[in-house]
Every structure is written in structure tokens, then in C-alpha cells.
Write a structure and sequence with these properties.
There is one protein chain. By secondary structure, the chain is α+β, with helices and mostly antiparallel strands. It has 2 domains: about 180 residues, Gcn5-related N-acetyltransferase (GNAT) (Aminopeptidase); about 150 residues, 3-Layer(aba) Sandwich (Aminopeptidase), CATH 3.40.630. Helix content is about 40%, strand content about 25%. It contains 13 helices and 17 strands. The protein starts with a strand and ends with a helix.
Length: about 375
């Protein structure tokens, strides 16, 4: 196996189709999602390029065929030094990010990447990928590629730190709507029947789906408006108040629609927009990514209604799973979804300076956690330490 480091999207362009085959239908891992993310969250000015740069690692076999991709970038931190992170991380909250690889060559890809990473971290030569910390969030407990890669790094002398993260929640769909409803808890079944009788079967609500490019602007604007209204009602800023997030959304959704990887819905109640949802689609799974509801219509449970209508439509279309993604909100279990644990990982290379940086950071984190526990327990912290 041979490793090639890519530092520009132009270099990666010839490998877009191979990249997408390795992504295996997970839209968050595809070239469309991650490359658009880099265009909006990567360096925007020359000054930014001194601290942030693309560092995608491609793994090639002897025939020069792409067998694996580590979709990463380097971000400089005063505390941690040069940090390797996943494309798509941060406020966009991409889930199921991983190292992509051909299933039959997993072990070879993982071995090659681990050896390359450790060798690069210790290399003082100009142009080497010298890193101080590999930081990965939301790694699935069932992700064998990432688990094996991190295990190999540990065997090669890296220090590993793992912490539990928020679960992703997935609902495996039956083939019939009545079977799904019957699987719900009694209280949720009553809610479903009530909403069907009061709103869904009366024609008061209409579910719209944007299926053409000329339908997207209206659907996208409705989602932004309802999401921002609801978050601001709760005293929050809302995702779309972030210029990079809004720009990413405006650019990536049309491209995903062309590829059949996005669904935008909005729900009218008595002729007024009541809720909107933005889902990604891949390999028979519908991923519930972004939502908004009209705060003036909360008494009608528009969030529940739109999810029920989309779920029924998905079952009728033969979608195999409905994924609510990360976050342990209670409504996900009520819809019948089950948790899929994730972890945040940190790997520190076997280099003295990187180890010292990390140990100092760990010491500071432990002190903060201890102080928080003392405050929660109602006992003074600083004064008792001094005494």
C-alpha cells in the first residue's frame, strides 16, 4: 500500500467517483458533502492557510487504485499544536464520519495508515505531516475501521484517550405502516391515532416534497425561517445565523438533490407552513438532519405530524431505516428508535513535545472537572484547597 497526501481539492477531483464508492452510500462521508464543507469551513483568506490546511490521506494499491481515504485536515491550536481532525466536523455535526476503505482491504489500509501517521509525526523533514494530536468525535462503537486504526496507533506507541459521546438513534423500518404503529408504546400509539384522526386524515395538513431544482428555493427558505423562529423563541441563535453554515447549506443541497441524496419537506397546516425537515438519503437509510417548526402552531404538534407523515411515506417507498442521528432527545425513543453509542477519541504520537502538551491539557481538564463536582456538591472548592 502507498499513501499519498492531498492538500487541495483540485488534486482530489479525479478521484471523486472512487471516493464515493468507498463512502458506501453514507452521504456525510461522500465527496459532495465533505468537499463543500471544506470550501466553507476551510481557510477563507491567505492568513488562515498558515494554521489550517487540507490533509486527506489516500491509500493506493500496487495498481494505483484508491483503496482507502482518511478525510482529514490539520488545524493549529495554541494548546494542542497541529491537530488532525475530520472534514465535516464542528458545527455542521456530520455523523458516521470514518476512514473509508474497500471492505476486502480493511486490514491493509488500517496498517498502512497507522504506520504512516506515526512515521510522519516523528519526521522533521520539510513537508512531512507532523502532527501533535488526532482528534475524532462521534466515532461509532460499531465502526471497526476506526477502532482498529486507533488500536494500531496504540500498539505503535501513541497515547489514546476515549470518552463517551452522544448516541445516534436509528429506527429499523418494517414493511407496513400498521406494523410500525403496533410496535410503539401504548401512549405513543394513542398520540399517532389522535394526530391521524384530528389532522392527517382530515386534509388540514399537506406534506410537500421538493423533488426538482426549481422547487428547492421555496423549501429551503421555509426551513431556514421556521428553524430560526423556533430557536430564537428558545433564546438560541439558530444554526443558520452562522454565515459558513448558511453558505454550506445553500451550496450543498442542490448538489445532493442532483445525486438523489437529499429530501426537503415542508408541512402546511390550514395553508400555513407549520414544519420543515431536511433529510439525507443513502443506501436505503433516511437521515433526519435538520428541522424547523412554527412556534405559533406548537399546540398542533407539527414536529410529530411531519415525522409521522414522512415515516409512512418512507415505509411505503421501501426505505429500510430512519436515522435521527446524534443527540439523546427523548422523542427519538418514543418514535421507536434505538441508541447507537459513539465515542470521542484522541491519539497523541510518541513524541515528547506532543506528550507534554497533552498531559498539561489533561491536568487542566481534570482540575476543571474536580472544581465542577465540588460546586455541584454545594461545598466550597478554592478555599478548602488553600486551607
Amino acid at each position: 500500500m502507498r499513501i499519498r497526501r492531498f492538500t487541495t481539492l483540485d488534486e482530489l477531483a479525479p478521484y471523486a467517483d472512487d471516493w464515493d464508492r468507498l463512502a458506501a452510500g453514507v452521504p456525510f462521508c461522500g465527496s459532495t458533502w465533505l468537499w463543500h464543507w471544506w470550501r466553507h469551513y476551510g481557510p477563507q483568506h491567505d492568513a488562515d492557510r498558515s494554521r489550517t490546511c487540507l490533509a486527506v490521506l489516500g491509500v493506493f494499491n500496487d495498481a494505483d487504485v484508491l483503496m482507502g481515504v482518511a478525510p482529514w485536515y490539520v488545524d493549529y491550536s495554541v494548546v494542542h499544536g497541529r491537530v488532525l481532525r475530520s472534514l465535516g466536523s464542528g458545527e455542521v455535526c456530520s455523523d458516521y464520519l470514518s476512514v473509508l476503505c474497500h471492505p476486502a482491504r480493511k486490514d491493509a489500509v488500517v496498517d498502512a495508515l497507522a504506520e504512516y501517521l506515526v512515521r510522519s509525526a516523528l519526521d522533521d523533514a520539510p513537508g512531512a505531516l507532523r502532527w501533535d494530536l488526532l482528534e475524532l468525535d462521534g466515532v461509532g462503537a460499531e465502526d471497526r475501521v476506526m477502532t482498529d486504526l486507533l488500536g494500531n496507533l496504540g500498539l505503535l506507541g501513541c497515547t489514546l484517550d476515549r470518552r463517551p459521546g452522544l448516541s445516534c438513534w436509528r429506527l429499523e423500518l418494517p414493511t407496513e405502516w400498521d406494523c410500525y404503529v403496533a410496535s410503539l408504546a401504548k401512549r405513543q400509539r394513542r398520540t399517532v391515532r389522535h394526530l391521524e384522526k384530528k389532522l392527517i386524515h382530515t386534509g388540514r395538513v399537506v406534506l410537500h416534497t421538493a423533488v426538482r431544482l426549481d422547487e428547492l428555493p421555496q423549501a429551503m427558505d421555509i426551513l431556514v425561517d421556521l428553524h430560526q423562529q423556533r430557536r430564537q423563541m428558545l433564546g438560541e441563535r439558530g444554526c443558520f445565523a452562522s454565515p459558513p453554515f448558511l453558505g454550506f447549506y445553500r451550496d450543498v443541497v442542490p448538489e445532493l438533490l442532483r445525486r438523489g441524496q437529499v429530501q426537503l419537506y415542508w408541512l402546511d397546516l390550514d395553508g400555513k407552513p407549520a414544519a420543515a425537515e431536511y433529510h439525507l438519503l443513502g443506501d436505503g437509510v433516511l437521515y433526519v438532519y435538520q428541522a424547523g417548526v412554527n412556534p405559533d402552531l406548537l399546540e398542533h404538534q407539527p414536529g410529530n405530524v411531519i415525522n409521522l407523515m414522512i415515516l409512512r411515506q418512507a415505509i411505503e417507498r421501501g426505505v429500510r431505516a430512519y436515522d435521527f442521528l446524534r443527540g439523546d432527545e427523548g422523542y427519538k425513543a418514543r418514535f421507536g428508535a434505538h441508541p447507537r453509542p459513539t465515542f470521542g477519541w484522541q491519539a497523541v504520537p510518541p513524541r515528547a513535545a506532543a506528550q507534554v502538551r497533552h498531559n498539561l491539557w489533561l491536568a487542566g481538564r481534570n482540575v476543571k472537572q474536580w472544581l465542577k463536582k465540588r460546586v455541584r456538591s454545594g461545598r466550597p472548592a478554592a478555599k478548602e484547597v488553600i486551607k
